[in-house]
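Troubleshooting: if your tokenizer reports a length mismatch, compare your output against this known-good record of 391 residues.
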Amino acid sequence: MEDLDVAGRRVLVRCDLNVPLKDGHITDDMRIRAAVPTLEALLEMGARVLVCSHLGRPKGEVVEELRLAPVARHLAQLLGRPVEALDTVVGTEAMAASMSPADVVMLENLRFEPGETRNDPDFAAALASLAQAYVNDAFGAAHRAHASVVGVAELLPSAAGLLLQAEVDKLDRLLHDPERPFVAVLGGAKVSDKLGVIGNLLDRVDTICIGGAMAFTLLVAKGEDVGRSLVEEDRVDDVRKVLKEAENKGVEILLPTDVVASEAPEAGSPNETVPIGQIGDRLGVDIGAATARAFADVIERAKSVLWNGPMGIFEIEGFARGTSEVAEAVVRATGSGAYTVVGGGDSAAALKQLGLTDAVSHLSTGGGASLEYLEGTELPGIAALTKQSAR
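Known-good structure output:
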């Protein structure tokens, strides 16, 4: 970003300000705070900053509850300067926005425009016409081939923002130069969402701990009875191949030996911790105490740790213990000098719920983007910047 000529120029900054709102109030400002360093740096360089972002999924229509005005107000508080929130994304109002050096203007929700998600060339050109340079700082949207992520980068002098650059650097350290032992902890609902990550990590890690509902498909592949637990039957054969590949490469895959079995995935439902094979006509909703201890022991002895995905239905208090114990083990590993990276999405939410967001080496702002990057997939937003810089 420091190579861009921005002094006195209008710079379009793509941020990821897709924050949760309740009754017009922001309930988690992590992504807004993460955008501040890049904006402050550009302002110090004399740029006239136009911020753009999406919020929610309005599907190309104006949705009053998804306007960015509350985000602009919160950003203004963090920056300590006014942030003018516009009612439109492109057009005469955006073009006419009065901007002196060190001004900040926020465009309206990008996804109010149907051309955004289609990467429409005309919409990308309209966005590009608002500025003389472009900075992409939205790692959380870098896996989307959208107009504000890809199209604009092809039309203006462009660079990565500090947050996007940091995200790539932090993940690259795990992928290309991890200190060993390197332990990956994966959870979440569907193994299909993580098969690509597992496959890419097999050449890099020493151990993979797998919890959450995704573990049940692996357990079925190994011949275990998992009751009514979530199983992706169409991926069992794929899982067997991955398990065989892990064995051939000497990578240990740890699966739950016990689980919290519940009659229903609901708060207050009768449940108990039982060994795998004794779930009966119930479903697993969390890893059991013995599994949590085994995972924690491996994590605490690691020098590099990647955690992505909860160990159970952590948003229900009675089914959150496994996720809590993994989170605390990752924090202890950090305190012992391990390099720890936690993926975005549910893992970030779990850390926030436990008040541990600042206790790991790196907490990613991008859930889907970090997963795709860890799979080894080229992210469209990063590819567009790379192509632009090579010109």
